[in-house]
Each structure stands twice: as C-alpha cells, then as structure tokens.
Design brief:
It is a single chain. The protein is α/β, with parallel strands linked by helices. The protein has one domain: TIM Barrel (Alpha-Beta Barrel). It is built from 13 helices and 13 strands. The strands form three sheets. Strands 2-3-4-5-6-7-8-9 form an eight-stranded parallel sheet. A three-stranded antiparallel sheet has the order 1-10-13. The chain has a two-stranded antiparallel sheet with strand order 11-12. It is globular and about 50 Å long.
C-alpha cells in the first residue's frame, strides 16, 4: 500500500545519548515530527528550541535520504512565558507551537502551568501570531479519579481557554476518552486533536491482563473499550480535526520496571504500522493516509508531503528491546508478530521498524545481555 509520507505531530525524542536511537526510528518512518519540549531542563525559549533542533538533526542516520526528515519544534509553557518570547518563536521559522502541561500532570511537567491567569499575555500573543497551543488535557486534582482526569479538564479548563481566546488554534493532545473526542467534534475549526496508535489499539484491560504490565502505563492512561471505539470512529471519519500524534515516549526498562515506573509507551519503531492494523480491524484502512499524512499538515498550515512511502503486508517479529542510549527500551508489541511493515524510503537504508538492523554483532550481543539481565531475552540477537 502506497501512502503520502506520514507526519507525527507529537513525539518525545528525549535528549543526550539516546537521541541517536530515537531520531533513527523517527527519521526512517516520518517526513516531519513535532518534538515535545519536556526535557530536563525544559525547552522554554526559542534559543533552547533551535539548539535542540540542531541536536536532533545531528543524529539523523546517513541512510535517511537528504532533506527527507524535518523536526518541528515546540516551546514549553511556564507561568513565566512572555509575549516577547512567543513572537520571537514565531519569527524563528522553526517553532510551530507551545505546549501547555498542567504542573504535575505527566513526565517532566513540574515546570508547567500553575495559574492560567499568569499565561494570559502569552496566550493572547499566540492568538495574534498564529502560533498553535498544544494542551495536555488532564486535571491534576488528586481527588479526581485517574480515569476521569481528562474529562474533568475538558469540563472545566478547556471551555475557559476557548472562550477567552476564540481565534487561538488549539490541539487537544493525545485524547483518550469519548468525552474529549465529542468535545473536539463540537468546537469550531480552530480546535483539533491528536490520537496515538496505542490508544487506538488498546483499552485499560491491557494494563492489568495477567498482572501489572508497566509498559502499557501512560498518561493520559488507557481508557475503556467504548472510549477506544469512539477514538477509532473519529480517526477514520471524514473529519479533518483528528490526526496522528504518536506520543511515542520511551523510558529505559530500568525506569519502567521498578516500584514507581514512569509513564510512557514507546511506539516509534512501528507507529504507522500499528495504526494500519487498528484501521484494518475497524474496516477503514482507506482512511489511513488522511489520518497519518494529510490532516496534521493541513491543520499546522504545512504543505502535504510530495513524497510517498510503502507499507507492505508482511509478517515480522518486533524485537524484545531496542537500544536506548546506554540502556534499552521495550517497544510496544515486544516479541510479537506484526502484519504490516514500512518499507525504506526510496529503496535506501532501513525502515523505522528495522532500525535494530544497523547494530553490529558486538552491539547486539551486549544488548541481549542487558535484556536478559532485565528478565527477558532479546530477539534482536537472533536476527
């Protein structure tokens, strides 16, 4: 199946020595990727964003065709974000949006927004400049049940923001519930939403099937089966409001498998393949290209890509782990079979799902030893 080269409008590359691995997966799968700013310390200024962009581009593998991958940058909204910084970001030509994390809502969100009155000048400047606002929509009120925090946010905070800034272009990030999906449907054309591959495939039973499965724990947390079906209905509809944002959020195995594991699911190795599987099961594979390649670009005011990629129906096994800096990350569907695989761009290099193939035997042996130490064997060593 041939599709327009896809875009990912929500991606966590992380930073440091793991960039060589996360960038490789993304660059081999996507034309453009929106880089999340919740680093430590966070990307709060235009200068930070441009330096982070340079670090990402420095790690694009040589087998990726020249000029076939572009990182789109974002800023991290804090109580101190100024209107001046917003206009500077817009003028840079490389910053496309500002991410709003309610303080304490998710990974590295402690620097996030604590008072919505304090960010009023920044939001007004964004409305004026045409810079998008990306919102992690969850309540941080600990009295609200974790499975209801998204709904609580969309009942309280979101209506306030939309009413105060009616021309502000807003992306409701990684929506997970039928309530949030219906909220987005009811808004004007300036409000859209991203949906992840894992929220299209899984419901909350996955977290608890056969025991606690930390690699299915993410924020916003997986919801019910009716919620998942509503997301699929929106993603495969004719609406232009819903598009792919993978929220691929890698953490090392050591940070996931412990007494207080991090939130995040790594899907960067096969995100488009996961979406294809979900759409095919729903009987709407014909909507794949719209969801992964067209709608996001259009909402961001970008040209739809003029290049194409091929998804091949073939059986392959997801490695049990992938390199992640000096450690390893356990991918979604580790050790399991897939039925679709993205083919290399222009017949060169590797696809994202084959990124482990560029490892030397020595590296694979070390990777397998680390995986075994973590309690499982790496299928990479047998490839």
């Amino acid at each position: 199946m041939r599709i327009i080269s896809p875009d990912d409008m929500h991606h966590h590359f992380r930073d440091g020595d793991c960039l060589q691995h996360t960038v490789a997966h993304a660059a081999r799968s996507f034309r453009r990727v929106l880089a999340m700013p919740n680093l430590v310390p966070p990307v709060t200024t235009t200068k930070d964003a441009l330096e982070y962009r340079d670090r990402i581009l420095a790690q694009v593998p040589e087998d990726v065709p020249e000029n076939s991958f572009t990182p789109l940058m974002t800023l991290y909204m804090t109580d101190m974000t100024s209107a001046e910084e917003i206009h500077k970001a817009k003028a840079s030509g490389h910053v496309y949006a500002v991410k709003l994390y309610p303080a304490g809502a998710t990974t590295n969100s402690s620097f996030g927004v604590t008072d919505y009155e304090k960010i009023a000048p920044a939001l007004a400047a964004m409305e004026e400049a045409g810079l998008l606002l990306l919102i992690h929509g969850e309540s941080t009120d600990q009295s609200v049940d974790i499975f209801s925090r998204e709904q609580s946010f969309y009942e309280t905070v979101m209506p306030m923001i939309i009413s105060r800034y009616p021309k502000l272009r807003i992306v409701c990030e990684h929506i997970t519930s039928a309530f949030a999906a219906a909220f987005v449907e009811a808004q004007g054309p300036n409000v859209a939403a991203t949906i992840t591959a894992h929220h299209l495939l899984l419901n909350r039973n996955a977290i608890f099937k056969g025991g606690i499965n930390p690699h299915y724990y993410c924020l916003p947390i997986l919801k019910t089966e009716p919620d998942r079906l509503k997301l699929l209905q929106c993603a495969t509809s004719d609406s232009t409001k819903f598009f792919l944002g993978t929220d691929s959020a890698p953490h090392s195995v050591s940070k996931k498998e412990n007494c207080c594991g991090c939130a995040g699911v790594f899907t960067g190795h096969a995100a488009v393949e996961f979406v294809a599987e979900a759409f095919e099961a729903f009987g709407r594979l014909d909507k794949l290209e719209d969801f992964v390649s067209r709608r996001g670009a259009i909402f961001y005011g970008l040209p739809v890509s003029d290049t194409h990629r091929t998804l091949e129906r073939t059986s392959w096994t997801v490695p049990v782990s992938y390199p992640f800096g000096s450690e390893v990350v356990r991918p979604l569907r580790a050790g399991e079979q897939m039925s679709w695989q993205m083919q290399p761009a222009d017949g060169e290099g590797f696809c994202g799902s084959c990124a482990v193939s560029d490892m030397t035997p020595e590296k694979l042996k070390k990777l397998d030893q680390e995986a075994k130490a973590a309690g499982y064997a790496s299928s990479a060593a047998t490839k």
